[in-house]
Specification:
With 309 residues, this protein is an alpha+beta fold. The protein has helices spanning 2-8, 10-14, 45-57, 106-115, 131-137, 160-163, 185-189, 205-222, 242-248, 277-295; strands at 18-23, 35-40, 62-65, 71-73, 78-84, 91-94, 97-101, 118-119, 140-141, 144-145, 150-156, 169-173, 192-199, 201-202, 229-232, 255-256, 259-261, 268-271, 304-306. Bound molecules: flavin-adenine dinucleotide.
Length: 309
């Protein structure tokens, strides 16, 4: 399979954007994860479409990787093709609208908006993912969500009929994203995000910066930002706060191997050094069981478990 990729995509290979047996730990905020059989880092829509078309024709499984900040990648890694979106990095302004490609870091987008005197994205400052991952997850914090500012997106429908058609791009208006809590049509329909336009409002850059700083301060106060993690492990269960439930079960600091429940925020699992994905998975299962036995509350993971388990 690797040789076939190399022969089929010689330019990507020669430019170092097609890699084999590439460890993914360095591409995950948990610093955990085995290798990808094939890791492609396209920089053009044409290459992205060609890679997807090839994978579908050869029935090779593929996975789209953003910044890897909401993932637990298995120790065995990911079979088939992993497509990293970091090559898609443009931001442009048109009046009060900012357009950003999938691989733009959310932090970069927030800082760009602030400098341009455009408000609305302050809530996202400090969420460490990419624009593609944020739209896919409907990321949110401190009372805001992507859905509040998103105007429209461009996506790919990953099937051969669409990819090989004259115009493979799907244009989604805001309401067509079917956003809800950490959920979007990109997840339910398996769409690949290319870019989005965000509708913002004019404001004083200094006032925007002050709000961003305040949000950053709150995050640093409450969350273990100094240790590798995947953010909040669980979705917020209706009527409860996960961190409090876990803390009330006496689990603060509890660890399996080097995977530990953060003593700063019990909704986070942190990697103390050499944690494996298996350690994290066992800890997740232990938390779910303990919380259910004590409070009859079912926890659902927000982080996505990917790869071969
Ligand atoms: C310390 C820390 C704090 C965090 N705080 C928050 C928070 O406050 N709020 C919040 O909502 N999240 C938070 N997160 C989680 C995470 O940052 C978000 O979910 C983020 O949106 C994920 O983006 P990503 O690029 O890292 O996606 P990844 O983790 O790479 O991928 C997540 C999912 O999105 C898919 N995906 C990524 N890019 C694309 C694309 N272009 N097209 C299609 N699918 C794609 C992937 O296939 C995967 O299924 C936090 C994480 C950490 C580590």
């Amino acid at each position: 399979m690797k040789r076939d990729f190399q022969d089929h995509f010689p330019q990507l290979y020669e430019s170092g954007h097609l890699l084999f047996d590439q460890p993914l730990a360095g591409r995950s905020s948990f610093k955990i994860g085995g290798p990808a059989d094939v890791l492609a880092l396209p920089h053009t829509q044409k290459d992205l479409i060609a890679l997807l078309t090839y994978a579908l024709q050869k029935q090779i499984p593929y996975f789209i990787l953003g910044k890897g900040t909401n993932l637990l990648i298995s120790d065995k890694g990911i079979r088939g093709l992993v497509i990293g979106m970091e090559g898609f990095r443009k931001i442009t302004r048109d009046e009060n609208y900012l357009s950003a490609f999938a691989g733009v870091k959310l932090r970069q987008l927030c800082e760009f908006a602030q400098k341009e005197g455009l408000a609305g994205l302050e809530f996202a400052h400090g969420i460490p993912g990419s624009v593609g991952g944020a739209v896919f997850m409907n990321a949110g914090a401190y009372g805001g969500e992507i859905k509040d500012v998103l105007y429209c997106s461009k996506c790919l429908i990953p099937d051969l009929e669409h990819l090989t058609s004259f115009d493979p791009i799907l244009h989604l208006r805001a309401e067509q994203h079917d956003f809800s809590y950490r959920m979007s049509a990109l997840q339910t329909r398996g769409l690949i995000h290319l870019s989005s336009v965000f509708r913002l409002t004019e404001d004083d850059p200094a006032a925007i910066q002050a709000r961003m700083k305040e949000i950053e301060r709150k995050r640093l106060d409450k969350q273990p930002m100094d240790k590798p993690s995947g953010g909040s492990v669980f979705k917020r269960p209706e009527g409860h706060f996960t961190g409090k439930l876990v803390e009330d079960c006496g689990l603060k600091g509890y660890r399996i191997g080097d995977a530990a429940i953060s003593d700063k925020h019990c909704g986070f699992i942190v990697n103390l050094g050499q944690a494996s994905a298996q350690n994290v998975l066992e800890l997740i299962e232990f938390i779910c069981k303990t919380v259910y036995d004590r409070y009859q509350v079912s926890l659902e993971t927000e982080i996505r478990l990917v790869g071969e388990w």
